[in-house]
Amino acid sequence: MLVRRSSEQGITTLTLDSPHNRNALSARLVGELHDAFAEAAADSGVRAVLLTHTGNTFCAGADLSEAGSDASAPLGLVRLMRAVVELPKPVVAVVDGHVRAGGLGLLGACDIAVAGEKSSFAFTEARLGLAPAVISMVLLPRLDPRAASRYFLTGERFGAREAAGMGLITLAGEPGDVLGPVLDGLRRGSPQGLAESKRLVTAELLRVLDRDTEELAARSARLFASEEAHEGMTAFLERRDPAWAR
């Protein structure tokens, strides 16, 4: 299993546990997450879902060993993000490590996100010949526009406090210190109250997903299949600079 599940006092915890590829979004991990979210949605005893990770990486984005071989992969990521957004229960991301590229889309789909001081973030797509196309649908409605322009284009790393300031996460601080009041508040919410309140705060994300999924998934698949992206991903896996950076 790449996704471990546990439950306590109405909170189901889903733990990404694929350390060999830094919790990358392989087809198997995405499928297991879908199943776990569906199970949580159907369980009347689940008040909220906490999404976290083992190791020093929350999610490294696309599994580059699979990238380009499956033209439907961008749509698979969109479906996963949509499953998080549409889940009638709040989803809280707890990050204590690195988040890259497509992993930021998974983070952005969550309703609340907490990150510790060891966390780092980067939109690395432009450096690989790609673009944060499909993940932009759940991120741009949340992010400060100037910050999005800078980090989408430069691929620079930034920390938890910057992430909170730009709207990528909710709280910067050690999860053990800041998570308690959040989970207590969610446990006090009624199932109906939480579901209907979530519908209000996710309405714009769903409008964007409805409007742009087809175009941006096709764009992402085209970019992944391009020669430039092949060079970028190969260079990354070989730990060398791509041709355009020499």
Automatic annotation (TrEMBL):
InterPro entries: ClpP/crotonase-like_dom_sf, Enoyl-CoA_hydra/iso, Enoyl-CoA_hydra_C, Enoyl-CoA_Hydratase/Isomerase
UniProt cross-references to Gene3D superfamilies, sorted A to Z: 2-enoyl-CoA Hydratase, Chain A, domain 1 (3.90.226.10), Lyase 2-enoyl-coa Hydratase, Chain A, domain 2 (1.10.12.10)
CDD domains on file: crotonase-like
Domain of life of the source: Bacteria
Matches recorded under PANTHER family: ENOYL-COA HYDRATASE, POLYKETIDE BIOSYNTHESIS ENOYL-COA HYDRATASE PKSH-RELATED
Entry's family note: Belongs to the enoyl-CoA hydratase/isomerase family.
Protein name per UniProt: Enoyl-CoA hydratase family protein
Organism: Streptomyces blastmyceticus
